[in-house]
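re: ur question from yesterday

yeah so i grabbed the chain u mentioned. its 200 aa long if i counted rite. heres the sequnce exactly as i have it in my notes:
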Amino acid sequence: AYLLLWLARYEEADQVLQDALQIAELELGPSLPPTPGWLLNRAQLALCHHMIGLLRLNTARFEEAEQHLHQAIDVLTPLSDDQPRMIWASCELGRWHHDLAEALTAMDRLEAAKEARRESLATWESAGRPVPAAFPYGKGLAHYRLGELLHHTGRVDEARQQFSLGQAIMEDLATRRPNESICHWQLICLLANCPDAELR
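ran it thru and got these structure tokens back, copy pasting raw so excuse formatting
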């Protein structure tokens, strides 16, 4: 499904994902008591919903995207809360709140999108120890995208603060990882497209 999605073969990807979702639901079985593999099965169910949500987002079916992304988040959140050492779950939640905000923004539900952005940011910030580069990367992007929404709704000063926070995080990441072009390229893209003229 991942491969078909990136190849933009959306109808085929959709069919594979529906099969995967059915398997994941069958494998999950009774929610109580947890059986061996229950944790992994919950994660797989969440991943299926997220991928379907991403597919719906890419094909402009935004309401369906919202529904599946909410389901993905609802399934995975308890795993992240109960298993604080699951860095993977926290990382995915940060990304999924970001995707949810994209769907809400596309539907012009900007207040809900702001809340999703803040949830994404809170997820990235919840890691209180050294973490993979995905965390500062996601955190910087979350600040920036929240700034975009604030700027769009006329809250320019608050937006500028978010842009500056995002810029500082991405600059720090680029400094610490000088040989990883993705860190520099993302910073350039954020600044070059920033709605704040001074930062741009």
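noticed a couple things. The mean pLDDT is 86. also The chain is about 75% helix and 0% strand.
anyway ttyl
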